[in-house]
Design brief:
about 280 residues, mainly alpha, about 80% helix
Length: about 280
């Protein structure tokens, strides 16, 4: 599949939309008290949807299957790290750290593994965007010692994000069908989450329709959001797609204001300006 040397305006807009969807499903997961159950329902809904899609598309090419298996394992670690970071910290703190950690790591990984060379302006844009994302994490003031466990969990989450982003970026280019690759990936992710919930939760926990409905919705949003990202990664540089995708933290901040009653504040406005500057530089 032909990879364009730079992002187009259409791809940027579509990936930003995927970021909005990603922020929505993360907000749903954060607000549910039993996150293991919501992730179990998320895994079930995405697994069943992926199975339906595979019945239509068939499997991706054989060269891509080792990448999907590797990515599925990394995604399990990502889900565990994400659940732990949400247990330890607030959405408006842990989410920006997790998402802001990955763009620069992906840029290095894409350079070493995919031979992608960013222009000087695009590289400055990625660094600027990452700085803006990270600054959102400290927008409420200085981090205290009590915040360190949450920060550590969020950084670990960010490392897993970078790992699966690079793995999937390479894998989807071997698949020659981003939809089939996405479907197989979500089919492989689902069973471990279901097994963990089956072992650790009683039957009564599965009868909570509120958690079930939110988990199913989160699963559908997650699959749609990541499918869009994989489509973009098959067509554009990994580092640029990863950086633009992490604008989801802006949507997470807005959700915090509109849904959770959090204050946006001057620091968040300044961080949003830095993020917008990074996006413009990447798109030049």
């Amino acid at each position: 599949m032909l990879v364009q040397p730079h992002l187009t305006a259409l791809v940027i807009a579509i990936v930003i939309g995927a970021g909005a969807l990603h922020a929505c499903w993360n907000a749903i997961a954060k607000q549910v008290s039993d996150r293991l159950m919501v992730f179990a329902w998320l895994g079930l809904s995405s697994m069943l949807t992926g199975g339906i899609v595979l019945a239509v598309t068939g499997l991706p090419r054989s060269q891509a299957i080792p990448y999907t298996v590797t990515s599925a394992v990394i995604h399990i670690g990502y889900n565990l790290a994400l659940m732990n970071s949400y247990r330890l910290g607030a959405l408006n703190q842990t989410y920006p750290i997790a998402r802001g950690t990955s763009p620069l790591i992906v840029a290095v990984g894409a350079y070493l593994l995919a031979g992608e060379h960013l222009s000087a302006i695009a590289l400055v844009g990625v660094a600027t965007l990452a700085a803006g994302l990270m600054s959102l994490a400290a927008s409420a003031g200085r981090l205290s010692r009590r915040d360190l466990p949450a920060v550590g969990a969020a950084v670990l989450t960010g490392l897993t994000i970078a790992a699966y982003t690079i793995t999937d970026g390479l894998g989807v280019r071997h698949a020659h069908d981003p939809l089939a690759y996405t479907a197989l990936l979500f089919v492989l992710q689902g069973p471990p989450l279901l097994a963990a919930a089956a072992i650790r939760r009683p039957l009564a926990a599965w009868k909570d329709t509120t958690i079930m409905n939110r988990g199913i919705l989160a699963g559908l949003l997650s699959m749609l959001a990541y499918g869009i990202v994989l489509w973009a990664q098959a067509r554009a540089p990994l580092a640029e797609v990863a950086a633009i995708r992490e604008t989801s933290v802006v949507f997470a901040a807005l959700i915090g204001v509109a849904w959770l009653g959090e204050d946006f504040g001057r620091r968040r406005v300044a961080a949003a300006v830095v993020i917008a500057t990074g996006i413009v530089l990447i798109g030049l």
